[in-house]
Fold each of these.
Amino acid sequence: MTERRLLAIVVASIVIFTVALYGVLGLLSNREDVTVTTVPRRTAADAQILNPSANLPLNELASSSGSGVDPLWVDLKQSLGARGALPNEAILTFKDGTAYSAFLARAAAQGLIIKGRLDEQRSVRVGFDNIGRLRYDLAAHGSDYQAAGANFAVSVPFLPDRQQRTGSGEAPFGDAMLASIGAGQNMDRSQWGAGVTVAVLDSGVGAHPTFSVGQVTHVDLVNDGKPFNGHGTAMASLIAGNIGGAQGVAPAATILDVRIADSTGVSDSFMLAKGIETAVERGAQIINISMGSYGDSSLVAQAVQAAQQRGILVVASAGNEQVSSKDWPAAYTGVVSVSGIDAKGQLAYFSNSGNPTLAAPAVGIPSAYFQDGKPYLAQGDGTSQAAALVSGAAAAMKGWGSTNLMNALINTAHPTGATAQDVGAGMLSVVPVKH
């Protein structure tokens, strides 16, 4: 397909969506011949996908507890019953290579199915049909284990149903979005982000004319052969897109597309940790995670810490549940956590708070989108977009020579009138100087 034809498709196919699975709300064009494409909208009514542990046989957990008190087992049992824990799965980490190899050798005989491995972390994702099988291995080889916990669902954030909204920040940014953060049309942004690689851990980045040839490198960890959810394309475009209607903050940045979510926008803690490890191995300097989880996974925490120790900035969305706490991994120490605001500087109607690092535009945000193998332009809401804009700003600052991106983002943020509990240091502001 020629670039001219692609651009024609984009112009003729403008769709409004709302994050997380981007339900299409309407048309952004006055042309009568534009076809409306409908995507199922994810709202709070669908939140059970993030709480599959509701079906977990907790009575079986209780009956498997044994007579002794094993702290590792107690922690695992509580984790498996927590909100968002995937049923009949666990993540196991071992103390050393010998213990790890021994488990790999005996797992099948114990009735434990290895669904994934992170050899460098000495960690495995295991499945089981009876929790007693895992309990038995913990009892017999407890000294081999470093950690054992649930594998939590990780998802593109959903939006609250309209009747359940408690916030009032609904003013859209629209075409004024980039200007609102200091990256308007009067700025020459052609070299912003040059030499910087931003990893986008998401649902995959589709082919779209907003990206230049060779700008995006793809790593598909899901590899299920199914169509990409459009969320990842939208996030990448906000970081480094470069056509009207889908412009990013740092169009000269390189995107490392690490697909960790399936076509419904759902992933898990193990895949997220693997995605972070892949981003580190592939040389990313910034990692954008516009996804979230209800569960604190020690494996994800370990992966985040390893990235930070290498000087990599991790940026994550605070979440869209309109609560006063942040989703994981945004809640981890050292992660740039991003809440969302509207065009009037108010906390966005859906945004979590919990004293984030800073806030960024999150209502009525133009971006690229990719659906059914076709490129679109879109406009959506979510802390996902806010995090992507911060990652783009961080890429620009990195390109200008900033050596402490966290401080640069905090020091250049400007007040919105909202509290630090809601917006942290304030609203994202891109200042083209060294920090």
Amino acid sequence: MNEITSSHEIHVNQIRQWRNAFLGQIPSIFANENKKADQNEGGYKNQIENLYAEVGRLTTQLS
């Protein structure tokens, strides 16, 4: 941390506050990412189902 504080001219206490704030929020950060991934997965599954249904309709129209 001393290297960071000297190179960027930031007080050590400020770096510690930022680090502690980040470490305290890590679980919520990853929880939000997991929610987004689950939402995307659900959307993709929905889209795949719709595409298979469309392929089925088009196949029966050609027959």
Amino acid sequence: MEAKKQKPFYNLVPVLNVKENITFPIKLDNQNVDTNRLNEII
């Protein structure tokens, strides 16, 4: 019997846009956002 593949679960905040959802946990951790890296991702 083959195991079902689980879909990834992302804890996104629906009222935030993509950039805000990416940077939100970084800011909560009182760290600086690497804008160059962020622009590469987006």
